[in-house]
């Protein structure tokens, strides 16, 4: 006669909470105190940000100073400066459309239907060209606006997108050169990568923005914005190259040897065997590098650019709104949060889709 063994049922959610947070009297006391503290802080934050806040500009700065909550009136009054910076007021619709073009380009790049070389190149090429035409003008009946007048969110997105657009292919090239079988190539590339990674980004931006024009002829120096973008892309590529190289090292060596035995050329082995698997292995670190690069765009304020953080400083810099700096920084932090959280969630989606980490 067979004996039927019934596995004990998993504890319910309430039982699990009790076991984790209320198993002993001291643990229960600490849990209740922590819960009460979180509720208190949440209420204070909601009361400051919503219930006691001022949202309209009808009362002016005086109404905000008299209120007990946040002064969101400064956002309603100064949002154009925060989002568009020094861009001419009557042309700010172009800056807004440029931001939309970048966002649409990024969203299309995240759709699997566009994950082919030609389609992704078409999307990024058209999106970048549309952004540049809208921002700079001088054609199609649009008034010319120099790079020195670009600012706000549009400039932040432009620096981020062009940094990744230039830096990512450069990172792949550096990773391939570092794993070259010729020692003088691999060692020289490794020296370049390690040298760039050992420097802080601020020093690289300062060098490309201020020092480099003294060492180059005037016709080769170019505009300061593009020099800063090249410096930022070089810094991005040095870190991303090591990420890609780590992904390559995770691919079993026997696969490349089997491809060589089948008579596949070097570029066929790289494009069809090695890189697809390496990018899959390096996906979590790559998404993290994109997030870091987006946040590091705020460092260009050091070399005199009016990106979104500098625009926020100008928004409350006048005498009447000087007291509302917390609200301005909270609004800018929310913008950063939206973009960075979206990137991180998309990265998590890709990890689930590709089953990264599962074997």
TrEMBL record:
Subcellular location: Cell inner membrane; Cell membrane
InterPro entries: AA_ABC_transptr_permease_3TM, ArtM/GltK/GlnP/TcyL/YhdX-like, MetI-like, MetI-like_sf
TM regions (residue ranges): 21-43, 93-115, 122-144, 150-177, 198-219, 225-244, 297-316, 328-349
GO molecular function, one term: transmembrane transporter activity
Annotated GO biological process: amino acid transport
Its membrane topology: Multi-pass membrane protein
Keywords: Cell membrane, Membrane, Transmembrane, Transmembrane helix, Transport
Pfam families: BPD_transp_1 (PF00528)
Residue ranges the record marks as coiled coil: none
Ranges for domain ABC transmembrane type-1: 153-344
A single Gene Ontology CC term: ATP-binding cassette (ABC) transporter complex
Superkingdom assignment: Bacteria
Family, as annotated: Belongs to the binding-protein-dependent transport system permease family. HisMQ subfamily.
Name of the molecule in the record: Amino acid ABC transporter permease
Organism in which the protein naturally occurs: Mesorhizobium tamadayense
